[in-house]
UniProtKB/TrEMBL annotation:
Pathway: Carbohydrate degradation; glycolysis; D-glyceraldehyde 3-phosphate and glycerone phosphate from D-glucose: step 3/4. The active site is at residue 128. PANTHER family: ATP-DEPENDENT 6-PHOSPHOFRUCTOKINASE, PHOSPHOFRUCTOKINASE. InterPro entries: ATP_PFK, ATP_PFK_prok-type, PFKA_ATP_prok, Phosphofructokinase_CS, Phosphofructokinase_dom, PKF_sf. It comes from Pedobacter nyackensis. This is ATP-dependent 6-phosphofructokinase. Signal peptide: none annotated. It is found in: Cytoplasm. One of its GO terms (molecular function) is fructose-6-phosphate binding. It comes from the Bacteria. Homotetramer. Keywords: Allosteric enzyme, ATP-binding, Cytoplasm, Glycolysis, Kinase, Magnesium, Metal-binding, Nucleotide-binding, Transferase.
Length: 324
C-alpha cells in the first residue's frame, strides 16, 4: 500500500478531527502518501481529493465537527456514482480508504469494497452509539455530556417554576443517549425507541411525584420513540394531567457540536492509529472499535447486521427505582 485516503461521512461527531489527525500522521509516519476526501462519498464522486501532510492536521484535535466536511450522499448508492468514485480513486493511485462514520457510511463501504476490491477500514463515528463491535462510538461521550449540561440547566428553571419538561434527545432508533442521560440527570421518566411506553403508567408516575411533593419533573423522550416525539407525548399527557405547567425542549443539533471530550479525543486517536495499522497488516473490510479497554476489529458486515444497541437492564430498572 502506497496511497491511502481518509473521509468522514454521515452525521458529524465530535472526535472525528482527532481521528483524521491520527490517520494522516500514522500513515505519514509509515511512509504512506496520505489524501483527504472532502464531503465524504460526495467528494469521491466529485473528485474532491487532496494530498495531506503532517501540518494539514495541525491544531484540529480540539475542534468539533469534521475539517474534511461530511455529507449524506444518495448518488453513492447508485452504480454510476460508485463507478465515478472508483475512477477518481484510480486517478490518484489510491489503493485504500479509511472511512469514519455510522451505519450508512459502512453500508456504502461494504458495497464499494465488494464491487471494486478496494481495501477499506471503518471507524465508528456517530453520536448514536449504535454500532456492534465497539462499546463506544466516536462522539457519543461528548454528545451525552452536552445533553447532560443542557438538561441540568433546564432542571434549574423547571424547579424554579414547578414545571414539567419533555426533553427530546437524538439517537435515531437507538435509545442509548436517552437512557443514559435520563440516569445521569435524575429524570423522572424516559421514553425509548426500543420499549413500548404506557401513557397510563407515565401519568401515574407523574401523579405520584406531584403528590409526594416533587416540585418539577423531567421526562426524556428519544427522537425515535414509537408513540411520538416530545411534542406529541406532552400533548397527550397534558390532556389528562395538569398538576404542572408543561414545556417542551428539543435539544436537536446542538448535541452534535462542540469540542470533543478527552474520551473522544483519545478514542479518535486510538481508532485512527489502529485503522492505518490494520491496512498495513493487509487487512480490509474491518471496523476498528473499543471493547473493554482494548482496540478490537469486527467485520464491517457484522458491525452492520448486529448494530442494535442493547439497553442495559439495570439502567432500565433504575429509571423506575431512583426516580421515586
Ligand atoms: O446519526 C446521528 C444523528 O444525529 C441522529 O441522532 C439523528 O437522527 C440524525 O443524525 C440527524 O441527521 P441530520 O443532521 O442529517 O438531520
Amino acid at each position: 500500500i502506497k496511497n491511502i485516503a481518509v473521509l468522514t461521512s454521515g452525521g458529524d461527531a465530535p472526535g472525528m478531527n482527532a481521528c483524521i489527525r491520527a490517520v494522516v500522521r500514522t500513515g505519514i509516519y509509515n511512509g504512506i502518501n496520505m489524501f483527504g476526501v472532502l464531503q465524504g462519498y460526495q467528494g469521491l464522486i466529485n473528485n474532491n481529493i487532496s494530498h495531506m501532510d503532517a501540518r494539514s492536521v495541525s491544531n484540529i484535535i480540539h475542534l468539533g465537527g469534521t475539517v474534511l466536511k461530511t455529507a449524506r450522499c444518495l448518488e453513492f448508492k447508485t452504480d454510476e456514482g460508485m463507478e465515478l468514485a472508483y475512477k477518481n480513486l484510480q486517478a490518484h493511485d489510491i489503493d485504500a480508504l479509511v472511512v469514519i462514520g455510522g451505519d450508512g457510511t459502512f453500508t456504502g463501504a461494504k458495497r464499494f469494497g465488494e464491487k471494486f476490491g478496494i481495501r477499506i477500514i471503518g471507524v465508528p463515528g456517530t453520536i448514536d452509539n449504535d454500532l456492534y463491535g465497539s462499546d463506544f462510538t466516536l462522539g457519543y461521550d461528548t454528545a451525552i455530556n452536552t445533553v447532560i449540561e443542557a438538561v441540568d440547566k433546564i432542571r434549574d428553571t423547571a424547579d424554579s417554576h414547578d414545571r414539567l419538561f419533555f426533553i427530546e434527545v437524538m439517537g435515531r432508533d437507538s435509545g442509548c443517549i436517552a437512557l443514559r442521560s435520563a440516569i445521569s440527570c435524575g429524570a423522572e421518566a424516559v421514553l425509548l425507541p426500543e420499549k413500548e411506553t404506557s401513557l397510563n403508567e407515565l401519568i401515574t408516575k407523574l401523579e405520584t411525584g406531584a403528590s409526594t411533593k416533587k416540585s418539577s419533573s423531567i421526562v426524556i423522550v428519544s427522537e425515535g420513540h414509537k408513540d411520538g416525539g416530545a411534542y406529541e407525548v406532552a400533548k397527550k399527557v397534558k390532556e389528562r394531567f395538569n398538576h404542572y405547567d408543561t414545556k417542551v425542549t428539543i435539544l436537536g443539533h446542538l448535541q452534535r457540536g462542540g469540542s470533543p471530550s478527552s474520551f473522544d479525543r483519545i478514542l479518535g486517536s486510538r481508532l485512527g492509529f489502529a485503522a492505518i495499522n490494520e491496512l498495513l497488516k493487509g487487512n480490509t473490510m474491518l471496523m476498528v472499535g473499543l471493547r473493554g479497554n482494548d482496540v478490537k476489529t469486527t467485520s464491517i458486515e457484522e458491525a452492520l447486521t448486529k448494530h442494535t444497541f442493547k439497553l442495559e437492564s439495570d439502567l432500565l430498572e433504575m429509571t423506575k427505582v431512583l426516580s421515586i
